[in-house]
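Please, structure for the following, as tokens.
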Amino acid sequence: MKVIFAGTPEFAAVALQALHEAGFEIPLVLTQPDRPAGRGMHLQPSAVKQYAVSKGIEVLQPLSLRMDSKDPQRAEEAKAAHQRLLSTPYDVMVVAAYGLILPRDTLDIKPCLNIHGSLLPRWRGAAPIHRAIEAGDAETGITIMEMEEGLDTGPMLLIEKVAIEDSDTTGSLHDKLAALGGKMIVEALNKMRHGQLEAVVQPEEGVNYASKISKEEAALDFTQSAQEISRKIRAFNPFPGAHGNVNGTIVKLWGAEVLAEDSKAPAGTVLAADAQHGIVIACGSGTLRLTSLQKPGGKRLPAAEFIKGFPLEGQRFG
């Protein structure tokens, strides 16, 4: 079975590696153009491109796949990409976190399967892992679905659940789901090869959308409950990094524990900041113990180390 793969970040690279190691022939990989990254803002290839190049797989990086784009360069690149797909013998396209919309022209060539990081129809859209943690979901998972023009609306082919632990961050849950997605897409293609893959239409009940994460969301509101704030800290780890403001200094918060104790102090007040109690913050309801923090230009530090260089006793997070 010949597979064209379309994806960009590490989540997708894990799936590409699983397909390659399972012995599927991959004549072509589509990924987004190289982007500036790092302190020097040098162009960096995507995780998918890096893996494909290391295995000698041809890589195509169009700006768009929409041939009707009003941007002449994007339209021209889309036409060239479309012709490349038409001229490449393949049986199925696998898509994982590609980041570009696949138009009807592309979807009509061959079946397109998508690896989506949620239990559809819950959390359709761009940031399903972040949103599941932020919402306090008890579980999430991977859905292998057949793609259509709607946003993650296609029929479901395989679905597996994963429990969301209280300690899970978006980073840790991402890694679990990436590994599961790689395993499941191999299973799905093996079933397809033997005519054993059955499609189930998504139910209309339970649909919601995981909107893209913005940096503005990372500013914490301490009038919320300790539970809500804790979930945001976990959801925004590693990106964009939840933060609070202490006397004009932005402090990133990477870890926290919800405490049973309540407080009548104003929300954001630092109730304790010492070796015995750690860093304890009053919230709209409940209290929170911060366990990992970072000041501008510094490293992530455990709370006990952080307060040695950044005293917080008597301060208040805005």
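The first strand starts at residue 2 and ends at 7. The chain is about 30% helix and 25% strand.
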